[in-house]
Amino acid sequence: MTALQKLLLLIWVLPVFSFKETPTSAIYVLKKGQVSFHSNAKLELIKASSSDLKGILDAEARTFAFSVSIKSFDGFNSPLQKEHFNENYIESDKYANATFIGHIIEEDDFTKDGTYNLRAKGKFSVHGVQQERILQGDITVKNGVLKLVCMFTVLLSEHEIKIPRIVHEKLAAEIDVTVTAEFVKQ
Amino acid sequence: MRPTRFLLIFLTFIILPAGLVAQYAFSKAFDVEEDNLTLKTTVLLKDHFGFLWIGTSEGIFKYNSAIPEKIHTPENIKYHITSLLEDSKGTIWAGCNNGIILTIKDQQAVPLKIQGALPNEFITAICEDGAGRLWFATAGEGVYCYESKQLYNINIKNGLSDDHVNCLFSHNGKQLIAGTDRGLSLINFEGGKATIHVFTAKNGLSDNIVTCIIKSDQKNCILVGMQLKGILLFGIDENKVLDTSYKAGWQYGQVNDIVDGKDNLFIATEERGIISYDKSSGIFSDSIFRGPNILKRVSDLQYDNEGNIWATSEGKLVSFTGDYLKYWYSVKDISLTNVHAIFADDEMKLWFTPDLRLYRSLQSTLGKENLLSYDITTPADHIDITSLYKDRFGCLWIGTMGEGLFRMNIETGKWRRIAENPIAYYGNILNIAGKDNQVWISTLNGVAKFELKENNYDLNEKIDYINYSKKDGLGSDYVYHILIDKKERVWLATDGAGVTLFENGMFVNFFSHKLFPSKVAYSLAEDNNQHIWVSTYNDGLYEYDGKRFIKYDTKNGLTDITITSIAVDDFNNIIAVNKKGIDVFNPKKNIVQHYGNESGFTELQPNLNSITKSQDGKIWIGTDNGIVCLNTHATLSGFVPVAVIERVSLFNKMLDTALEKKFAYDQNNFSFKVAAAYYKATEKIKFQYWLEGYSKKWETTGDRIINFPQLRPGTYTMKVKASANDNFEASPEVTYSFVIARSFWTTWWFRLLAALVIATVIYLLFKQRVKMVRRSEHAEREKIQLLYDALKNQVNPHFLFNSFNALLNIVEDDPKEASVLIKHLSQFYRKMTAYSQKELITLGEELELLNSYLFIQKKRYGNALQVNIDVDVILKNSTLIPPLVLQLLAENAVKHNTINKNSPLHITLTSQDDMLVMKNNINEKMLNEESEGVGLLNIKKRYSFLTKKEIIQTQTGREFIIKLPLIYSI
Question: What's domain A2-12+28-185's architecture?
């Protein structure tokens, strides 16, 4: 938890301290990003997205941290669905953020333009339950700007997200998540 | 805490419609439960006894194949176990998801406590190197090296490729190889300093995330499992990837673990269950279990000593028969039912006949590749093929029921019905065997010997033959099996006449010669010693050693005595197939390994002589419900359960059997917990034990705890054996010797010592007592002396008084006489003074004294005093008397009686028996003088000190008698 807290803290305080970084540092900060998810349930499609994504990436140490506020998700089919999502499933009052903190496996050089398929291994936390995940994504580097596209699935059972029996049919056990983000060098 | 329950739940296998899956291994699945909670199994370990250790999300269990035993922790803290290791000293180590390292001692897991920083992250792997150092891999902190109670951290700063380390491998004990999230780190560690060589994707590694490393059978090579790219072969010396051919066909996602089997690599994957990789054909197979996608995430694999492979999968514990026993219930779209004939040819191909059809496939990946179908008749008009044989021209002979005999060109598939021989033509062919130019067939109408000639290369050329029947000496025309042995003799197994041998053109029937007792012989096989083995209907197995038949049956551990087919494997084991399963009988060791229900051989219904041995030593068996392949190369040959004394308890307290071997006399309540790893069928395990020194023979028990509540002092050896089929002959013994000392009081030295001590004490007590008695005696004497002296002093005044009285009388009458008297008196007095110093004087001396006294008194009384002393002269010197006693008595007599001429006083002194008797007549004075009774009393007192005998005093009317006991001078 300490490592996680440290990194999370880093996200918030980074703008203040970033000036003190050495010139050679390779810290990238998320400029804009979006997280969206959807589930193809039999009866009801659940989808939502949030632009309240925070992130930081150290190209040197090859570590990163992402965080998104659960309550910032919007675009549900109905206000009721949003309410259920926040209150019943994710319990956003208790578990405000979803985070992914880890390191990048591949050794590609982000100073060079190009598109890289990468794996990131880290601790993915939703609903207060942490899972070690290896996620794949593509990073496109152009003129010092890193564009990330990553798609993955979240198993509700892995995060102890319990679904009431009545809506069992409506909600798939697997949720597809798509993350897009744009990083600029600090 | 309630006892841990271990539920064995067979996964419900869904029998699929044919066509979806090919090869199936038999498997079992278990839930590990504690207090009704199913625990998540995580990692597995096999210890040096062959016992499995199961790491779970809640702690560690030791599974001795009978009961999983929870390894307790201090204060029952729960640990999520992520790695396990047994070091070279036999200590079990465990790593946890929170960085804690546990060691197991005395059935308890205790966290490692050392100076310095301990890991905080998930321990992913533990490894021991050749120097006895332990290495711990962490997810995020690099590796830790544990050496002489010091923990060194080696991480990215020291040159490690990544701090996320997934696996460890000790290469030749010198080099440690860590698989990380960024390639391999090859670590040399000396003098607390690590030299690290890194090999990553930049150097040519297929995938940076290395998930597992195992030893390769190629020298100095490792097999590396990866997150995305399957497995590869890495040459350590060459420092490069040698073979990425595995990668080519890899589509199964993340590799979690690999075990190297005989024929296959078994690969545990994150999403696709267990993948088998056939080493000979290079083909991956993802469906080794029966049923669709039974396993998804498989995290750890472990071999047991029986050849079973264990896996942890999503919390469950799964075991399967690995390479040693395989089942095919179907291949491609063909259901493998009613396989009446099976034949492994010389090209590693297997021929088999499910449901009246004939197929050929590659043995290694049955049904996967090269599956060919052959039609003998029209596809609609199938025939029941009972026997197959490939002749020297490469043609296949096909025997059928009712349709006769066919010969087929394998290349072209063309065939010809052998019509030239009447017993083959539309006959019932039971078996075909051959060697070089000879091909023998057996039918229900006798046997035929075909002789191949060079022109028989042509399928259409007729073949010469000779037929033999009962009248030629077959014994019976029903011949089930033919064996041509290494000496070119032909053996026939008949129904009705047992075994018949054809040698030098002659038939010998052993049954009719009463050399073979069984009427029905089913199957024949020749072992490496050129002994012939015969299986029978309901009469077990026979071995012919050249002279006679030796019988083997259930007493030898065979499970059934009706054996439908036999074969001999590469280890000279007899493979005997019966309806309960397969017995692997090792005649040399006299042990039987059985594969029955517990190995998945349920209701398979083996077919008569549907058995074949392939060139690589595998035994293939055709049954009504599939094909079974037994590979005795993949099991420990001659495996027998090995008994282990798991725990010795003394008064329920566990002993360290390595150190504690001597006990005191009262340490006598022993309890032995025994176990034997036999995961296949643990319920069949029985133990034999013999406590030497206590009993005289082996005892058989199904119990796993053997108690001896009150052992007498002595020397004992506990011997334990285990067996799965009541045949303990080949079972190795495990022993534990101990001594219960005699209680110290039963030892000879103690007894001797005790005797000495007792003797000394008695002696001292005696001495003390004597001393005391003497002292008290002395005191008594002194007292007596005092008293005595006093008494004696009393005497003197009396006598003086009386003497003076007498003198007074004489002085008046005769002064001259008086002077004489005075002279006597002084003499008397001198004597008396002399004697009175003594305690005792002789009777003679006393009599002299008495005479002196009486002389004085006679002077006073004249004839009125008459004295008569008649004492035995001998007594005068031999007896003693207190001085003055007689004088005193005489004095009393004089004193108390009237003495005159008219009434004289007669005093007589005689010795009578042991008494001295003094009598005097009584002439009582009218007026008695003073001091009466004092004298007599004194005498009595004096006597009472000297002797126990009493003075007897009697007084009649006329006589006063006193009897004094004689005191003999010794």
Answer: Beta Barrel (2.40)
Helix axes B885-896, B748-813, angle to 10 degrees: 40
Q: Report how far residue B255's alpha carbon sits from residue B235's, in angstroms, rounded to the nearest whole number.
A: 19
Report pLDDT digits (tens) over A33-89.
999 998 766 666 788 999 999 999 998 888 999 999 999 999 888 888 888 888 888
Q: Are strands B626-630 and B619-623 parallel, antiparallel or unpaired?
A: antiparallel
Task: Assign B822 to helix, strand or coil.
Answer: helix
Whole-number Cα distances in Å, B608 to B482, B621, B859, B940? 13, 10, 152, 125
Does the domain formed by B336-349+376-633 have CATH 2.130.10.10? yes
Instruction: Enter the CATH code of domain B643-746.
Output: 2.60.40.10
**Cβ contact (<8 Å) for A107 and B140?**
no
Query: Least CB-CB distance to A121: which of B200, B201, B209?
Result: B209
Our CA angle for B398, B400, B401, nearest 5°, is 170
**Nearest-neighbour CA in chain A from B201: distance (Å):** 8
What is the pLDDT of chain A when averaged over all its residues? Answer: 82
Neighbours of B647 (CB within 10 A): 17
Query: Rounded to an integer, what distance in angstroms lies between the CA atom of residue B970 and that of residue B966?
Result: 12
**CATH top class, domain B757-968:** alpha beta
| Cα distances (Å, whole numbers) of residue B865 to B791, B814, B861, B895 | 27, 18, 6, 12
ipTM summary value: 0.81
Q: Where are the domains of chain B?
A: 21-113+292-324, 336-349+376-633, 643-746, 757-968
Q: Which residues of A touch B140 (CB under 8 A)?
A: 3
* Other beta carbons less than 10 A from residue B923's beta carbon: 18
**b/e for B252-291, b at 16 or more Cβ within 10 A?**
bbbbbbbbbbbbbbbbbbbebbbbbbbeebebbbbbbbbb
- Are B169 and B220 within 8 A, CB to CB? no
Residue owning tokens 């070279």: B88
Rg (CA), chain A: 17
Tell me the count of A-B CB pairs closer than 8 A: 27
d(CA B500, CA A9): 91
pLDDT for res B10: 33
Q: What is the pTM for the complete model shown?
A: 0.74
